[in-house]
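Consider the following assembly input.
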Amino acid sequence: MITLEQVIKELGSYDGRPIKIMEVCGTHTSSIFKHGIRSLISPKLELISGPGCPVCVTSALYIDKLVEYSLMEKHCVLTFADMLKVKGTTMSLTEAKAVGGKVRMLYSPLSAIKLAKEEPDTQFIIAAVGFETTTPIYALIMEEVIKSNINNIRLLTSMKTILPALTYICDNEKGIDAFLCPGHVSVITGSRIYEELVMKYQKPFVIAGFEGEHILGAVYEIVQQITEGSFHTKNLYPSVVSVEGNKKAQELVEEYFEEVDDDWREIGRIPSSGLRLREKYHSYDAGSSFAASQTDSPKGCRCRDVVLGRIHPVDCPLFHKVCTPMNAIGPCMVSTEGACGIWYKNGGKNQ
Amino acid sequence: MKINMSYGSGGALTSKLIHEVFIKYFNNPILNRMEDAAVLKVSEKIAFTTDSFVVTPMFFPGGDIGKLAVCGTVNDLTMMGAIPKYLTAGFIIEEGTELSEIEEVARSMANTAKEAGVKIVAGDTKVIEGNGGIYINTSGIGEIVKTGISVAHCRQGDVILVSGNLGEHHAAIMSKRMEIDNQIVSDCAPLTGILKELMKEKVPIRFMRDITRGGLATILNEITDSSLCGVVIEEGNLPVSAEIRGFCDILGLDPLYMANEGKLLAVVPKAKAKRALAAMQRSKYGKNAVILGEITEGNSVTMNTRLGGRRKIDLLYGEGLPRIC
């Protein structure tokens, strides 16, 4: 058994070939700063962010549609906090609210049901955005809507799954040597989903929690696998992540949603990477569209390169100069899960 | 009974509201005269401040908008080395508010004012259209007992103290809004007692600030900007209860950026640090006080993490949580 001190010592003095590790989840990006991980490991071990912020990869046209609904008479958009500030092609939901749009924050799935019952004349549109961690919540809402025979809730979906995005990165971005897999998503999906990626791409996929010790442990595991040239999925978060994942949540999602090719803002179309309501529940869909919806990035904005792990936020010429959380140019700066926002808040300009 | 627009007319119903609620609870000779302005006798040097309160929900575990409105202004005065003496209270009440709620808020203000040793000597009431909300402005004056307290007066080698556990007000408000069931209670409290204890010990306070919106991180950055110095704090000394830590882990919050309503940061010379700590720990709202770090050379805020790493602590950007006070 190796001690934490030994792990820190080994990672601090690592002098092998440079290794680039992508952390897929925004919470990991935050934790890396919070625990000062970069100051503890060798500069030859590079930690780079990936596409794990659902808000950052939600298409601008989708946000436009939410804005449109918020401004319609007798309509109200329900959303989790992060979606409020991201701009569509014209405005954000916060801006829509300022000109009379009706937008409310969703704190729990059941609060949506409560609202719908209290205000039967309002048509509630739920902004169903997120990865595997949040999709079961929308499935729960659907279950309750049907059970309680509620007819004033509809979903505008832009739900995504992480595995196709990782596959896309493995196919197209050659510089990533290993993946720090998202702890929360893995609770739902299970560790098994990474096995085909390990087989196909011969890279370490290591699941970890969010404490500093967890992250250091994962980096250490990755260094071991690469040094030994033997790759496998390693689950360092076994207290909550199982091989099979949360079967109940998976079944619930399976009941209401089906796979669809989907567009990721800044990346483009990724096969089978989205979820939409199944045909038999289409009457609950508020017109979710999966048509090509790529919009050009603002001039100079390098969110695409950030999302794909090609550069660190500090390498974007707009970072901290023009683009700040107060005046965000690209989506990665707006969201609390976005890599640019996290780097900015943690004084990333000096890292 | 619900408030309607006639309570703001300036006529009989306004008078009824003032007498049956505000005078009843705030009751003191200066206010009771009911003239156009309070006439006060004060010492030569006073501190004077104002603050408005719009918190939602109005009632939360550990306090309410009334207690907050008194503590907020009392604490701002205290931080400038003043013993708070007199407050004014302006109420903007939306129609539809229950009279019993106004009464509860007034009772809570009166109790808090009594504890803090201040009198509410003037007030105003307006009623507006709306949905049953209450907004309160308080202004206050206090007599200066310690001069020269400033964010620009910190010097290399000085020590930073924090008076207790962080994040409780923020977490209590958030829990109530999100309908999360837990035992978290707002720390909302008047901090004058801590100043009094520090003065008893003759601690030469360089700087004091109540740790409200923006959290500890924001104040530490203000120190580096104004005193042209660096700050180093120790994660291992950060006072955070196990319950708040769990709450933060689940919701992705950071206690360094969370609002408090009954905590202060003080900077004192190193030689007086232990004495200052003991003084804080003796006072009612300073039992969990700690020495958190020190003023160094440099120009940024750094935290030595529990694992031995270093983390740069920047300002809070964007909104922390709207309408928290």
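The mean pLDDT of chain B is 94. Ask yourself how this observation constrains the way the partners meet.
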